Amino acid sequence: MPRLRTLVLFFAVATCAQAEWKILSTESEPGRAGIEHRHIVVKNTAADQRADFDVAIFSAKSCALRVIDNPDGQTLASVMAREKCLSGVNGGYFDEQFEPIGLRIVNEKMIAPLRRARLITGVLLAWPRGVQIVPAREFSRAQKVAAAIQCGPFLVDASHGVRGLNDSQQARRTFAATATHERALLGVCSEASLADLAMILATTPIAGDLRIERAMNLDGGSSSAFWFAREDGSAFSIPGQKPVRDFVGVLPK
Predict the structure, then answer these.
(1) pLDDT at 152 over 90
(2) pLDDT digits (tens, 9 = 90+) for 123-146
(3) Residue 165 is part of which domain span?
């Protein structure tokens, strides 16, 4: 029995060590309306694994979130510039007919209904009080919602990484998050599993002194894209590799 306890303890320590992520470097640049672009490099200290993040951090008091429909399959950069956005990422899932999968509310109009499905468990929404991420089962049309997009899975809830996520499939990931002090984030991450992404968001200070309270996955892989408007009028851009049906954009109020 003592030997068994030793083996169990070793396994627990090894598992924790494999999941320990640390920030290697952080660079930041300001945008308009108080929005900030951060490039963060993190490393798993117990394995030869690293990930790069690009995130836009903004205040829900000075910025508004929009879901922008993209039925013509235009690029993120062209749509963000046209709509005069401060930053943006690709949106949610879509089917082979290029139709959105899950709830979409664009300019207060529902263009696709809520779906009950195992993967799309969260809703990112914008309403008069700011930006929220809520479980799909808690979404109510009684709320006055200006924009909403259903996707998933949930990555962080109550500042803790969600358990049971896939820990083997590596891919580029796009995500949205809400944080303390009425801040929100849109971001993209290089090759990582869903489990790794959840742990990084929950345990490393990628948003500085802000604590991430909730986060959910958006469409990733070849759909992943990120765009940020610098103060001088130029743009930082990570283009997607295929057309997507919609975008999530940030605009000044």
Answers:
(1) yes
(2) 999 987 899 999 999 998 878 899
(3) 22-252
For residue 3, tell me if it sits in a domain.
no
Q: Is the peptide bond before 2 cis (omega within 30 degrees of 0)?
A: no
Nearest to 197 by CA among 217, 212, 178: 217
For the stretch 197-221, pLDDT in tens is 999 999 999 999 999 999 999 999 9
pLDDT in tens, 40-92: 999 998 888 999 999 999 999 999 999 999 999 999 999 999 999 999 999 99
Residue type, 153: P
Two tokens at 36?
A: 């900030």
Q: Would 4 be classed as within a structural domain?
A: no
Burial class from Cβ neighbours inside 10 Å (0-12, 13-18, 19+) for residue 218 reads buried
Query: What contacts 127, CB < 8 A, 6 or more positions away?
Result: 143, 144, 145, 146
pLDDT, mean over the chain? 92
pLDDT (mean) for 184-208: 97
Residue 15 belongs to a domain: no
H-only helix segments in the chain:
2-18, 76-82, 194-203
- Token pair belonging to 62: 């000075």
CB atoms inside a 10 Å sphere around CB 231 = 10
Q: How many domains is the chain built from?
A: 1
Domain assignment present for residue 178? The answer is yes
